[in-house]
UniProtKB/TrEMBL annotation:
Source superkingdom: Bacteria
PROSITE patterns in the cross-refs: EAL
Gene3D superfamilies: 3.30.450.40, 3.30.70.270, EAL domain
Molecular function, one GO term: cyclic-guanylate-specific phosphodiesterase activity
Protein name: EAL domain, c-di-GMP-specific phosphodiesterase class I (Or its enzymatically inactive variant)
SUPFAM superfamilies tied to this protein: EAL domain-like (SSF141868), GAF domain-like (SSF55781), Nucleotide cyclase (SSF55073)
Length: 593
C-alpha cells in the first residue's frame, strides 16, 4: 500500500510538469520572503522526486538538487506535516546526512500538498547555526507554503497545461522564455515549431475519424516529442496542432538542422497518421533577451508556414518571408474595415471590344483598394487572401451591388453596355448566391442578359459538382456565364461540354506569346479558339497589347478582345468619356467613308 501511495504521489508530481523547468519569479518571490521572515541565508521550494530533491526556487543555494536519501524535505513530502530540526548535530536521523556534513545545523519545512492530499515537497529554510522557532514563524512558513501550492495549481489549472496533450501551453512558453532570458542573457538558442497538419487536413481528419481521433493524434505526437527531448527539456503545445520546444544553448545551426531532420524522420516513420497528415517544421534562431517571447514563437510559426512546400520540410526563419506573412495578415485584418468604409474600395472598368467592328460591347468590373496607410494595394495581392476567408461573401456582394448600381445608371442614360463581374470558388459554397444576384437585378430593373458572371476554370474544378449545379441555376436566370483564364486549369473536355457557359476568355499568357516568333504558340491559340467554337462558346482574348496581336486573333476567329491596346481599366467617369470618344471616332470614320 505504501509503495502504491508513493507511485501515486510521484504521478501527481509528474502531471504538474514542474520538475526541471526554468526558475520563475512567481516562486522566487515567495522563497525570498521565507528567507527574510526567518532571517536565514538559505530557502528553497524543494520537490521530492523519486531519488532527488529538486529545487524549483532557491535562495543561497548554488546547486539545483540533492539526493533524496536523508533529506528532511522528503520526510515532509511523505508525512505532509511540518518538520523542524533545531540542531542537525544532535538529530538521530539527520546528524550524518549530506546537509549536516555540508554545515547545515537548522531546518524548518512546511509541506506542499495538492488538493488530493499528495505531498510534493516543502517550502524550507535552513541555517548554519542551531536555533528554535516560534509558533508564529511556523504559521508564516505554512502560509507561504500554501501560497506556493496556490501558484502551482494556478499555473496548472489556468492555461499552463494543455488538457489533451498534457504539454505546457503557450502561456508557459512565454514565461519560461522570460525566465531563461533573465538567467542566461545573450545565450543563443533555436525555437522549433512542429506544425502537425494543415488546417484542411485537420478538418477532413476530424470529419472522417471524429474529434477523439484528432486528440489521439496530438497525444501520440506529444509523447513522441517528449521522448525525443528527454525529461530535461520541455515541450509546449502552442496551437491546435502545433508543438514547440527550445534547442540546447549555443548549438551550431547546420548540425542542429541535421539532427532535427533525422529525429523527426524517425518519429514520422512510426506515426499512425503519417499518410493522412503533413508535417512542417519551423526554426527561429534568436538570442535570449534580444527578442520578445511572442516574436520568437511567431517567427518559428512563420518559418513553419514557409516549410509547407513539402511534407516533413524544415525552414529557418526568414525576415523577408515573415514580413510578407505579416503584411498578408494585416491586409486580411484591414479588409473587413475597408468593406464598411465608404472611401477605400471602388470599381474600375476595362472595356471589351468586338474585334471585327472595334465597338465596345461590354466592360469588366475590377475591384480596387486604396488602403488609408499603405496606399493602393494590388488586387493580385489582396484578392487571393480575401477569397479564402469568410470575407469572400461580403466582398462579392459589395462588388455585385456597386457594379449593378453602375449598370443601372448607364441604363438610365441610354447606354446598352453590358457588364461582367468575377466570383471565386468560395462563392460556390453560398446557397443563396443565385437568389442574391436575381434580387439585385430585379431591384434595379435590369435584364439578366446585361450581366455576365466570370469564374476561372480552376475555381470551377475546385468544387466541380457544386459548381455545375450553381452554373445551371445561374444560366436558367438568363445571366451570361464566362470561363475566365481558359487554358490554365485542369478541366477535361468532357466536363467543359457540360458547362452552361456562353463565353471563354483565353488567358493573357497565351495571347502575349502570339508574337514570340514561335509558330507553335500561334497554333496553340488557334486550336483553343477552334475548340471553344466547336464547344459552342464565344471567345474573348485577354491581354491584347499590340495591333498585330489583335489582327492575328481576329483572323483566327476570336470574336472579342480586351487589353491595354484598347484601354486600361478606367474609373466610371473616365469610361464615359472614353466611350464618347470611341463613338465620335466611329461616326467620323463612317462620315469619311
Amino acid at each position: 500500500m505504501q509503495k502504491y501511495q508513493e507511485e501515486a504521489r510521484l504521478a501527481a508530481l509528474c502531471q504538474l510538469k514542474l520538475l526541471d523547468t526554468p526558475a520563475s519569479e512567481s516562486f522566487d518571490r515567495i522563497t525570498r520572503m521565507a528567507s527574510q521572515i526567518f532571517n536565514l541565508p538559505i530557502a528553497a521550494v524543494s520537490l521530492t522526486d523519486r531519488d532527488r530533491q529538486w529545487f524549483k526556487s532557491r535562495v543561497g543555494i548554488d546547486h539545483c538538487s540533492i539526493p533524496r536519501e536523508k533529506a528532511p524535505c522528503a520526510q515532509v513530502a511523505e508525512t505532509t506535516e511540518p518538520l523542524v530540526i533545531e540542531d542537525f548535530a544532535i538529530s538521530p536521523c539527520y546528524a550524518d546526512s549530506l546537509l549536516a556534513r555540508a554545515g547545515t545545523r537548522f531546518y524548518a519545512g512546511a509541506p506542499l500538498v495538492t488538493s488530493d492530499g499528495y505531498g510534493l515537497g516543502s517550502l524550507c529554510v535552513l541555517g548554519t547555526e542551531p536555533r528554535q522557532v516560534t509558533q508564529s514563524e511556523i504559521a508564516a512558513l505554512t502560509d507561504l507554503a500554501a501560497m506556493v501550492m496556490a501558484q502551482i495549481e494556478l499555473q496548472h489549472a489556468f492555461g499552463r497545461i494543455d488538457p489533451v496533450s498534457g504539454l505546457a501551453t503557450q502561456t508557459q512558453f512565454r514565461d519560461d522564455l522570460l525566465d531563461l532570458a533573465r538567467d542566461h542573457p545573450s545565450e543563443r538558442r533555436f525555437a522549433v515549431v512542429v506544425d502537425l497538419a494543415r488546417d484542411d487536413e485537420l478538418s477532413q481528419f476530424r470529419q472522417a475519424m471524429g474529434g477523439a481521433r484528432v486528440d489521439d493524434m496530438i497525444r501520440e505526437a506529444s509523447l513522441a516529442l517528449q521522448t525525443a527531448l528527454q525529461p530535461a527539456r520541455t515541450a509546449y503545445q502552442v496551437g491546435a496542432a502545433q508543438l514547440a520546444f527550445l534547442s540546447p544553448p549555443n548549438v551550431e545551426q547546420d548540425a542542429y538542422l541535421s539532427l532535427l531532420r533525422s529525429t523527426f524522420g524517425a518519429i514520422r516513420a512510426v506515426s499512425s497518421v503519417r499518410f493522412v497528415t503533413s508535417v512542417a517544421i519551423g526554426v527561429r534562431p534568436f538570442t535570449l533577451g534580444d527578442v520578445s517571447a511572442d516574436d520568437v514563437l511567431r517567427g518559428a510559426c512563420s518559418a513553419a508556414q514557409d516549410a509547407r512546400r513539402e511534407d516533413g520540410a524544415i525552414a529557418v526563419f526568414s525576415a523577408a518571408n515573415d514580413m510578407a506573412h505579416r503584411r498578408r495578415y494585416r491586409l486580411l485584418q484591414d479588409f473587413g474595415a475597408a468593406l464598411e468604409a465608404d472611401d477605400q474600395l471602388r470599381l474600375v472598368y476595362q472595356p471589351r471590344l468586338d474585334l471585327a467592328t472595334g465597338r465596345c460591347t461590354s466592360v469588366e468590373a475590377l475591384l480596387r483598394w486604396r488602403h488609408p496607410n499603405l496606399g493602393d494595394v494590388s488586387p493580385g495581392e489582396f484578392i487571393p487572401i480575401v477569397e479564402r476567408t469568410s470575407l469572400a461573401r461580403a466582398t462579392t456582394q459589395w462588388v455585385l451591388d456597386a457594379a449593378l448600381d453602375e449598370l443601372a445608371e448607364w441604363q438610365r442614360s441610354g447606354s446598352s453596355l453590358n457588364l461582367s463581374i468575377n466570383i471565386s470558388a468560395t462563392n460556390f459554397g453560398e446557397a443563396d448566391l443565385v437568389e442574391r444576384i436575381q434580387l439585385g437585378l430585379l431591384q434595379r430593373r435590369l435584364r439578366p442578359e446585361r450581366l455576365e458572371i466570370e469564374l476561372t476554370e480552376s475555381a470551377i474544378m475546385d468544387q466541380p459538382d457544386r459548381a455545375l449545379v450553381m452554373l445551371h441555376q445561374l444560366a436558367e436566370t438568363g445571366v451570361c456565364l464566362a470561363i475566365d483564364d481558359f487554358g490554365t486549369g485542369q478541366s477535361s473536355l468532357a466536363y467543359l461540354q457540360r458547362l452552361p457557359a456562353h463565353v471563354v476568355k483565353i488567358d493573357q499568357a497565351f495571347v502575349r506569346s502570339l508574337l514570340s516568333g514561335d509558330s507553335s504558340d500561334a497554333v496553340l491559340v488557334e486550336t483553343m479558339v477552334d475548340l471553344a467554337h466547336k464547344l459552342g462558346f464565344r471567345v474573348v482574348a485577354e491581354g491584347i497589347e499590340t495591333q498585330q496581336a489583335a489582327a492575328l486573333l481576329a483572323r483566327m476567329g476570336c470574336e472579342e478582345g480586351q487589353g491595354y491596346l484598347f484601354s486600361r481599366p478606367l474609373e466610371s467617369a473616365a469610361l464615359v468619356a472614353w466611350l464618347a470618344e470611341q463613338d465620335a471616332a466611329s461616326a467620323a470614320s463612317i462620315k469619311a467613308a
